[in-house]
From TrEMBL:
Source organism per UniProt: Mongoliibacter ruber
CDD domains, A to Z: NAT_SF
InterPro entries linked to this entry: Acyl_CoA_acyltransferase
Designated name of the protein: Acetyltransferase (GNAT) family protein
SUPFAM superfamilies documented for this protein: Acyl-CoA N-acyltransferases (Nat)
Length: 225
């Protein structure tokens, strides 16, 4: 395995050239996982770069390696770190964790009083969020900003979201509240989850199995989700 050195920093107008590559990889990644994400255009990604609301990772040779951006909802009461993506050749190097750490810091700087939330189907992202101090929450704890939820209309799983009256879907909701100081030893999830990503994988697989079979069964256990 090669050793790569990454430069991770806030994106600017200098990085607009990478916007189309980023959106293409977001779409390909979602397709490969068989899960949906709200689609973003290159123009949208460029706007985030120009607003100083994004983090980009490059190799020392200037090759694009990863990206993540900030969205604010409910007049800034809620912030989401969205669109986390790592180029395929640079996965398995811990780059996603580094990018999440940087976008989290940028979010706390720009929106120090905002709650930071995430919706994800990715076990690795759940683990990273947990380490940052996010806790699993119900969908009702997230923003009620209609513009945010409109973004789910381009997700392949939007019918599941609608069938659950926007109270659940394949994504797991997680929230960081700056007003609630969480001790390092008490962060987010049970101790057995903290270093064992397979437990996150089991959770997402269970949720997928139940919700994707929603139309095939009327089992009352569905009411638990």
């Amino acid at each position: 395995m090669e050793n790569y050195s990454f430069i991770i920093k806030p994106a600017t107008e200098k990085h607009l050239m990478y916007a189309e590559t980023i959106t293409d990889e977001m779409a390909e990644s979602a397709k490969a996982r068989g899960t949906g994400i709200a689609k973003r255009s290159p123009e949208y990604i460029k706007a985030k770069m120009q607003e100083g609301k994004a983090v980009i990772a490059l190799t020392k040779d200037g090759e694009w390696a990863g990206f993540c951006y900030i969205e604010a909802w409910g007049h800034g009461k809620f912030v989401a770190n969205s669109g986390l993506i790592v180029a395929p050749k640079f996965r398995k190097f811990g780059l996603a964790t580094q990018i999440k750490n940087e976008i989290f810091k940028l979010s706390r700087t720009k929106f120090p009083d905002s709650k930071i939330f995430g919706l994800t189907t990715g076990p690795a992202v759940m683990k990273i969020n947990s380490e940052l101090g996010y806790i699993p929450v119900s969908y009702s704890d997230l923003t009620d900003d209609e513009e945010f939820w409109k973004g789910c209309n381009s997700c392949i799983n939007v019918e599941i979201l609608k069938s659950k009256v926007r109270q659940n879907c394949l994504c797991t909701a997680m929230l960081y509240d700056p007003q609630k100081k969480v001790k390092k030893d008490d962060m987010a999830l049970r101790k057995d989850f903290r270093k064992n990503i397979k437990l996150f994988e089991r959770w997402t697989n269970l949720k997928r199995y139940i919700l994707l079979n929603l139309k095939k069964t009327k089992n009352k256990t569905l009411n638990l989700f």
